[in-house]
Specification:
single chain, mainly alpha, 14 helices, 67% helix, elongated
Length: 313
């Protein structure tokens, strides 16, 4: 068989069987939804009832403390001497304390203090702990040795005891609380980020970036930092309730927030003597503190699992 005959047979095989039988157009691919990391995280969080409940509680708490002048118009310092240690009623939803102040208003404004301290301490931790951890883990050498020796020295002191010593020297007040808690508040984040940077600096994509001449600072910002965001977010989420508890502890022993500004720990301390006759004075702030701690912890657990779903497989 000649070459011309082979081409003729092949063309006949590819031709349509009937002149009206035209070739069908290729099927168009269905549009796919663009999935993002944070979209996947939110979908996993929604499947966790504890984490979702914690998110709802924390959102409501933030709205309460932001809208404090509207949801508690009486203010935290206004006194009503005709209603001393009143039980919850229609006028005072949670009752009044031994000075006739609205317990609901003090609880809301105390939540504002607690959240402000918790978030502020973690912002300082982000500003100090993340850069030092990245430098120590990525560059290593003398920088790593100096930074980690400072961390080890500060870690030798228990955080709360160190804060008590500083507050005894500085005196009570919101600013002094932030200073005392921020001095040691960045240590955990620094160590976590350093460990993550140590594991990333020998990865293939980091070596490839070095091979093509990418500057180290650009590798650090463009490749190492984005791959540490999950551990940073998780650590910060767990750090907020720790700072809130530390502030409440300092206020409980009388060296935290200065009166008449309310604090949940201070409210428990001031009213613990009336627990039998006026139980609501100490129970309500203690419950608020406990629920907030539980919500942040549950949210942190859910967020950690959502950011790293293969950890428990």
């Amino acid at each position: 068989m000649s070459l011309e005959q082979e081409f003729t047979i092949a063309a006949a095989a590819q031709a349509p069987a009937h002149p009206n039988n035209a070739a069908a157009p290729p099927a168009q691919a269905l549009p796919q939804r663009h999935r993002t990391l944070w979209g996947d995280v939110w979908r996993r969080l929604r499947r966790d009832p504890a984490a979702l409940s914690s998110v709802i509680f924390l959102v409501l708490l933030v709205l309460l403390v932001v809208l404090a002048p509207f949801v508690a118009p009486r203010g935290y310092a206004a006194q009503d001497y005709t209603s001393l240690r009143a039980l919850p009623n229609t006028r005072y939803w949670l009752g009044t304390d031994n000075a006739g102040r609205d317990l609901w208003a003090r609880l809301v404004y105390g939540g504002r203090i607690s959240l402000f301290v918790g978030v502020s301490v973690q912002l300082v931790a982000l500003a100090v702990g993340v850069p030092l951890g990245l430098i120590a883990g990525f560059y290593g050498g003398r920088a790593d040795a100096v930074i980690m020796r400072v961390v080890d020295v500060l870690y030798a002191f228990p955080n709360l005891l160190f804060a008590i010593l500083l507050m005894s020297w500085l005196g009570p007040g919101l600013t002094n609380i932030l200073v005392a808690l921020s001095i040691t508040g960045w240590l955990t984040l620094c160590r976590v980020v350093r460990a993550q940077a140590l594991s990333l600096r020998t990865r293939d994509f980091i070596e490839a970036a070095r091979a093509v001449g990418v500057p180290p600072w650009r590798i650090l910002l463009a490749h190492v930092l984005p791959n540490t965001l999950s551990v940073i977010i998780t650590t910060v989420t767990f750090g907020i309730p720790q700072a809130i508890l530390a502030e409440a502890s300092l206020s409980f022993i009388g060296i935290g927030i200065s009166p008449p500004m309310p604090s949940w720990g201070q409210m428990v301390s001031d009213n613990i003597l009336y627990i039998r006759s006026s139980w609501h004075l100490a129970v309500f702030p203690a419950v608020a503190l406990g629920l907030t701690m539980l919500a942040f912890t549950s949210f942190g657990d859910g967020l950690r699992d959502a950011l790293n779903p293969r950890a428990h497989e």
